[in-house]
Amino acid sequence: MTEPPAPGSPAAQPPPTQPPAGQPPAVEPPAGQPQPVEPPAGQPPAVEPPAGQPPAVEPRKRLHPLSPLLHGANSLVVIIAALSWQTLGRVGIGWYAALVTVLLLGVVVLSLVSWYNTGYHVVGRELRIHEGLLWRRTRAIPLERLQSVEVVRPLLAQLSGLAELRLEVVGGGKTEAPLAYVAVADAVALRERLLGLAARTPPSTPSGDGRVEAPVPGELNRRHLLSVANRDLLVSQLLTPQALLLPFGVAFVVVQFLSAGSWSFIAVASTLTAMAGVLLQPLRRVLADWNFQLGRDEAGLRVRHGLLETRAQTVPLDRVQAVGVTWPLLWRVKGWLRLRLEVAGFSTDADAVNRADQLMPVGDPDTAQRVMAEVLPGVDLTMTLPPPPRRARWVHPLAQPVLGAGLSEQVFAVRQGLLTRQLVVVPYARIQSVRVVQGPLQRRLRLATVHADTAGGPGAAAQDRDIAEAWALAAELTARARAARTPR
């Protein structure tokens, strides 16, 4: 009688399966190594890179082919402004049009060459941008330093279905590596991908038709905070010195024309251009803040605004260095104020219209307090701030009663401004350094100014405090800033 083979013995193993005729036999992996995984039915097998070689690099992508035309159209206004009305009067309409055409064609050709030699792609955790014809240049932007990716759509880009991507990085003095222009769908997909990599989360996966299915992390928990009425925005810009003084300027010009009896085209055009320049800042602010929307999600504050140029941006709350509150003189009739942010890594454009730090372009105190609670919870905008000593009138004869500075549980706050009242609120954790400064007159009056410096912003300054109070305030600020930055 034959005994059955013991388990694990060679005789207990099933006989090897013979391959079909004409095919090589399958190679079994060595013992102790994982078995190869077959791909699902209908899908191609995964191709592994050869041993010792890096994975395949994502191919470079070019900007949209219409980008040179949009750059040329944007330069048309600059060319006409540079030639001025006086040039038109000297050379005539024919030569003027020919000169504009030649310059415009030159700009388009240069833009076309630049477009042909510009490309971008994501390599690991870097966005690399290649540009240049004679001098090739490659910029590598580490995504861990990325603060925000702004999708901007100027008027011509809106008409052509394009958008511009603007990147803000830590320590950048200006917008880093703008990509102008790409398709809107590509801009949104690239923005989500970069933000996902910067947040160390997997980026959203595109569907078969190229649309992004998964939102940016935190987008599902978005809450609406504020919508500014366009009517209030218009009225606020009418309550500005430029708008109020414009009728007097128009009346003066009309009287001059009537008395001189000259109504030449050049004179009228130059006058209208000068008047337009007076209204430029209020008009730009209306266009920039049109349909202002503010929301909140896990990633930070979501800001969207603009008429001719729409902007959509995320402001990370952990990068907010300070909050500024402004009460313009003429707005006090309506009880309105404005909120703005100082954000580390955002470009410090001197023109406040182009700054991406608007928190509330116009609103009442209750709305401002509600918005402030989202940025700095527990901070009261009506807090009492002690003024400097009376001898500070020798330095600020009229503004001494307006000046103020004080400490709350969470922030250092200073107030200044005679006609345009301003309040600056700095969280203790954002203070980088504290300075005590004395000028010649302050030394004679035993006064000093205490500066609290922040990263990438002007910070806050308590002006003309008593010298003993100034040193005590500086010591307290240093201690609170150190305690706020210490992990608990």
From TrEMBL:
Coiled-coil positions: none
* Short name of one Pfam family: bPH_2
Where does the record place the YdbS-like PH domain?
115-193, 296-353, 408-475
Show the ranges annotated as biased composition (Pro residues). Answer: 1-57
Q: Which parts of this chain are annotated as the region Disordered? A: 1-61
Q: Which spans are transmembrane here?
A: 93-116, 233-255, 261-280
Swiss-Prot/TrEMBL keywords: Membrane, Transmembrane, Transmembrane helix
Task: Name the domain of life.
Answer: Bacteria
Q: What is this protein called?
A: Putative membrane protein
Q: Which organism is it from?
A: Micromonospora pisi
